[in-house]
Amino acid sequence: MRKWRWLAVAAAGFCAILLLAGPASAASGHIAQISSADGKLAIIFGGSDLPDGAMIDAATVQVKVGSRYLPAKAESLSTQPAATALISVVLVIDTSGSMKGDGIIGAKAAAKTFVAGVPDGVRVGLVSFAKVPSVRIAPTADKVAVNSAIDALSAVGDTALYDGLQAGLTVLGKTGSRRVLLLSDGADTGSKTTLTKVLAAAGASGATVDAVAFTAQADKATLAKIAASGRGQVYPATKAYQITRVFAKVGQDVSNQLAISVPIPADLAGQLQTVEVTARAGGDLLRDSSYVRLGSAKTTKAKAKPAAQGPQPVDLPVGPLASRTSLYVAVGALFAGLLLLLLVVLFGRSPGRNGQVHRRLSIYTLTGRNAQETQRETTALGNNAVARSAVEFAGRVVAQRNFESGLARRLEAGGVPLKPAEFLLIHMGVAVALPVLLLLLSGGSLAATLVGLLIGVGVPIGYLNFKESRRRAAFLNQLPDVLQLLAGSLSAGYSFPQAVDAVVQEGSQPMAGEFKKALVESRLGFPVEDAMEAIAARMKSKDFAWVVMAVRIQREVGGNLAEVLTTVAATLRERERIRRQVLSLSAEGKLSAAILFAMPVLFSIYLLLVRGDYIRVLYTDPIGILLLIVMAVQLTVGAFWLRKVVRVEV
Question: Tens digits of per-residue pLDDT, 603-633?
Fold first, then answer.
């Protein structure tokens, strides 16, 4: 016990040290406005929760665009009348019946203190809300008019908190540095709008929304949501005099803002970049960032031309594959290849009808027929010379690379009526044609070409896998009925080859086709058990391998094969029932896994083709590359985990 007591004391001391070493204030920076015009970035940068008397040091301002720092000129807004006019603040004050007495008196005093503390030129507006919101005065630089509106406030009625904030955001406008200071002492009791809508409006406005929770009856949770949506803070004020202190604090933050000007380099013009601003206020480091599109670089002013009407030409991006010369060469090569292929097909030599007649009559003439005429081999790509030559060349490639037998086995298992050379030729054609097509359609985009290459290489392989799995599933579904048919034929007195022939005559594909191959091989001298074992290997069926094993045992040992096949058929039928039940129970999980795995990949490809500049930061910025690696690892782990969860062996 003493040991644990000392550990607890040590942990408490460590926590106390961390608390003492932590930051003394929660000061933070925020970009109130950022715009790009005339070759410059115009930024209004301020701070929140700064210590009393602390000012943002304009000499410490640093602006980072993307991965590099740019020269910046910073000046205080309070010293620039033109810039000060860009600041707008709307005071949204609760004037419900619960604010009577000290509440409304403290709110008025705080509002007047705020108006007196902000620099001349700052536009201040006033909105009150009770049963309904009321715009007392729109944002104006006339401090006397604002103070008159404050004096006219009185407390009566319910609390339409959401409607009041909505009215304040509306009257605030959409330009300049904007701020809303909300004061409320209770929960909403009569608004027509909803919290969801007002939160969305606060987030979309781009304004900073601060909230003051007056008394313990204030809905602090709702005020916290409102402040979070407006990138502001919640200030508690349990006494009336504390409202004045909070309003003065916010007024100091409003006054303590900088106007920053940053020239835009020519190589960054028009790009989407992350703009980060850092500055110091006393001992605190203020930081904030924003993702914006940079305007064009500064150019000399020229005489304005009237805006052209109708569609306008767009300059293509220049890249390693995006020059007009490359496009012309690619289009010309594609056109020439298609034209040559068309000429060969249309005007190539063909024996024709007369040639066939002369060949048939030549045996009765004095010259006779040639000793041997080679039979023209037909192909799935056509019977012309080009198709035969291409298939011949692909056949030699397949034979030299030693994967003809494996590819032929897969084509046969999938029921694809193509030779290995023909499939390889089609695969190569798709893998080449699709990237070229996307290259031309995208205006020379290298990313689109790579996506087309990946799709062109993967689609034929995926098609072959799909055909194999579909034919294998049909084979397994038909197996119990076929075994029952074999058992019935053997019971009727048929021999085993005759029973197999009955399956060929009465069965359906793919079972009839596979048994026909086994029957033909057995008639050529190949043992029927080995021929059926080849079916099991081709269809990758353990169930059918058991059947072949039963036939071999019966041939070597003897016994009633019909009864054995009947028992095996019943077992396989029961296993198939369980397999289907498992598939139906795991279908939802498999579909979820497919959607969760394919959605980020397909959406990334879509963005890469449609909005390449939006996603470019992921593979050009080091942080983006790191995020891609993390995403790939998490996606792979999740895919394997879901596969293990939904995969059940039967």
Answer: 887 887 777 777 777 877 888 889 889 988 9
Residues making up the chain, counted from first to last = 650
pLDDT at 385: 59
Rounded to whole angstroms, what are the CA distances from 360 to 40, 175, 377, 383? 87, 91, 19, 21
Cβ–Cβ < 8 Å for 390, 381: yes
Cα–Cα distances (Å) from 58 to 33, 61, 88, 439, 484, in that order, read 17, 6, 22, 49, 91
For residue 374, what is the DSSP state? P
Question: Distance (Å, rounded) from C-alpha 367 to C-alpha 635?
Answer: 75
Find the distance separating the first CA and the last CA of the chain, reported in whole Å: 55
Nearest to 589 by CA among 637, 650, 630, 638: 638
Q: How far is CA 587 from the centre of its chain?
A: 24
How does 28-49 read in b/e, with b if 16+ C-beta sit within 10 Å? bbbbbbbebeebbbbbbbbbbe
Name the 3-class secondary structure at 418: coil
Tell the burial category of 73 from Cβ atoms under 10 Å away from its Cβ (0-12, 13-18, 19+): middle
DSSP, collapsed to helix, strand or coil, labels residue 133 as strand
**Is residue 650 over pLDDT 70?**
no
Exposure string of 296-316, with b = 16+ CB inside 10 Å and e = fewer, is: ebeeeeeeeeeeeeeeeeeee
Rounded to the nearest angstrom, the gap between the alpha carbon of residue 152 and the centroid of all alpha carbons in its chain is 54
Give Cα 637 distance to the centre of its chain.
18
Measured on CA atoms in the order 537, 541, 542, 543, is the torsion positive or negative?
Answer: negative
**Can you give the pTM of this predicted structure?**
0.42
Cβ-in-10-Å burial (0-12, 13-18, 19+) of 605 comes to: middle
pLDDT tens digits for 296-317? 655 433 333 444 444 555 444 4
Contact 317, 616 (CB under 8 A): no
